[in-house]
Amino acid sequence: MKVLIMGDRKRYEKYAPQPELSGSFEITYIPRDADPETIRKAGADADILFADAISRVDGNVIRQMKNLKLIHSEGVAYNGIDADAARELGIYVCNNKGANAGAVAEQAVYLMLALLRSGIAGDRAVREGRQIEMKERLMTEGITDLADCRVGLVGMGDIGQATARCLQAFGCELCYWSLHRRSPELEQELSLTWMPLERLASSCDIISLHMAVTPDTMGIIDENFLSRMKKTAWLVNTARGDLVDNQALRAALVHGLIAGAGLDTVSPEPVTADNPLVNLPESCRDRVIFSPHLGGITTGSFRRMHRKLWENAARIARGERPDNIVNGL
Q1: Among 92, 115, 79, which residue's Cα sits nearest to residue 263?
Q2: Is 293 a catalytic residue?
Q3: CB-based contacts of 210: which residues, under 8 Å, 6+ apart?
Q4: Which of 46, 61, 84, 233 has the fewest Cβ atoms nearer than 10 Å?
Q5: pTM over 0.90, yes/no
Q6: What is the pLDDT of residues 223-267, one digit of tens each?
Q7: 180 carries an active-site annotation
Q8: Which of 287, 293, 306, 307 is an active site residue?
């Protein structure tokens, strides 16, 4: 069987599982941002397509790949894949559900702590010889312990649950909202209180995003949501940049409507220097911490994800159903 991979060859070779899983396939590599014509030509007779989690695979391309049986996201996200077109053609779309949940949860907690402890400004102050000056200023202004924060988790899938488990160790009060409320048993296990989204926005010290991007969640963090947040509250996004209205968040930061933000994901990707959230005025620049969408790309995560890619490829080769089907087949 032929596998077309939209992604970095060195990464795939590094994390390839045992030869018995991947060694029997004919593999072709193209860039993760390949245009539709390149995908079509390289994958004209491909049986399986592995795509970077931010790659775009549109319906027209899928329809022209006559042998295609499986499209598999390398990561958890699959919103760049036309899953509806694939379903119409009987092509499975799968993802790596849960494989990087613990890693992304760690990233969310890191951003929370970095915001509460003035990570960016503090680093610069020490480098510039202003350590005591900043220390004395923060002793007067106050530093909030994470343990003293009410954290609102927006979304309660694998990553939301992993984040809740991490935060339990800090002793935070944990609240959540999701499109579907979780079971009483899970709420009790994770010490969670369900709240309507509007109340979550207005009552929490930290809002942390853990939802997939769908038509229902696109831009869910908008001007209305941000206007309800406390001026002392922080926004953390380790999910997808498309959940956030960039202009609304920029305005909230510039006008001091919220304390700041920790962003592992910003839309669109790749993020450029002229993005409205990156290109902030000096007055609020230190209140935003970025990381380059690395929450879910730890070594352990990639080992789990790449094993699942090839396990599902092997299932397709045997005529079996793959795991983690996301397009309803």
Answers
A1: 115
A2: yes
A3: 104, 108, 153, 154, 155, 156, 157, 159, 160, 163, 238, 239
A4: 84
A5: no
A6: 999 999 999 999 999 999 999 999 999 999 999 999 999 999 999
A7: no
A8: 293
